[in-house]
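This is your field. Please look over both lines of this record.
***
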Amino acid sequence: MLPKRKRYWLALFLALAMFSFAPACSSSDDDEEEDDAVTETAGAPYKTTGNEGAINGKVLFDGATPPVPKTIDMAADAACASKNPSAVAEDVVVKNGAVEYVFVYIKDGQTTDGSKKLDSFKWDAPADVQLDQNGCHYVPHVVAVQVGQKLNVTNSDPTTHNVNVQPKNNDPFNTAQGQNAAPITTIFKRSEVLIPVKCNQHPWMKAWIGVLKHPFFAVTKEDGSFEIKNVPPGTYTIEAWHERFGTKTAQVKVDSKGTVTQEFKMGAGVASSPQSGSLQVMPALDLPMLGGH
């Protein structure tokens, strides 16, 4: 049996410890609840009716002569230079009058049935999306995912890269990734158009990630074409986004089981000052963080 004085001090110590622990637990719970609250996964699940339609189209270059792609000098990294000796930048890719790497998505609008916005529904996240580092380039140059969908970043090059993702509405990360390293897997919690990606080791390496709550988006192919499937009937604003040419919008009406064709023209004014020259390796201004994201 402890003496009365020792029992007093032991009881006081335990009381103070419990008092200090309680706020810490409360704060942690509050933070977790706050984080969950801003995750864009709420809403009633959308139920397919069989009346969904599609939005198809192309993005064409508006101008007589497209900008000349910049060549990239990879001499600073022998592995890059050997694997990709004829590398060019992908910020402007125009072939046969068509613009590649344009992010096209439903920006706003309402469904015909109940006049609900697409963001008011909950959409199941599809299969994982891959972003590879191959030839010391990000492949593809523009990638799109849904909120809650996994993005796996891989390294197919015989050199070390560093994946530097700097969003405004989501958690940033900056992670080194060596040859044959495990994929870097991340999930974005909030919509964001678009998130820049770079590599501190190879400053010419750039990519973009589009994140939306709903699945109605596409990235134009080499022939400038895009297709957005399974769109609920309704009236929508669609936007075409390009890193150099800016944005264009259009209003479309998707009828029951209907297909809408929409064409965009981008690039007016850019062709008047064609680019040339070469991109060279410059010293990185910020160091990669070797820890996880």
